[in-house]
Structure formats: C-alpha cells, structure tokens
Amino acid sequence: MLVGNKSDLRHLRAVPTDEARAFAEKNNLSFIETSALDSTNVEEAFKNILTEIYRIVSQKQIADRAAHDESPGNNVVDISVPPTTDGQKPNKLQCCQNL
What we know:
Layout: E1 2-4, H1 17-26, E2 31-33, H2 42-67
Parallel strand pairs: 1-2
Organism: Rousettus aegyptiacus (Egyptian fruit bat)
Protein name: RAB11B, member RAS oncogene family
InterPro entries: P-loop_NTPase, Rab_GTPases_membrane_traffic, Small_GTPase
C-alpha cells in the first residue's frame, strides 16, 4: 500500500497524485492519500492495510494446511470408551450429602 500523507497541504506537494497513482499501479500497490489534520482517509487506510494483512495470512494458512494435508476432514481420531464393569452403572455420589 502506498499512502500519500498530508494531502491537505496541496501547495507543498512533492509528488503529483497522478504520478503516485501510476507508481502504485506499476508496483501492484493500492494507493490512498490521507490527512491527519482533517482526518481524511486515515481510518480507511488502516482498515485497508489490516484487511490486506488478514487476506494474506489467511491464504498462507490455507496453503500451509493443504501442503501438510491438515484439512479438518483429515484430522480424525478414534476414541474408544471401555465398558463399565459387569454391565452395571458405576455408583454415583450425591452432590450434597451428609458424611
């Protein structure tokens, strides 16, 4: 992500918006201009970068699972429960009893 900061100071701009946008496109980056002074696009920039991080991490986790064959359907564990003795139910103590 390419962020142009201080967009409120247009008269002091060192890089024209069109040039920054072209650079971002050429380098496969998203582009946004922000201004902390008037709160323009600041929250949007953070949301965009967090969304992109989440997307990348999620894709990596999916790829890692596929590479290690760890899909949820492949994690089967057999569980065996031994029968109670003599087919009788075990003695259960009452929750609140006088001793």
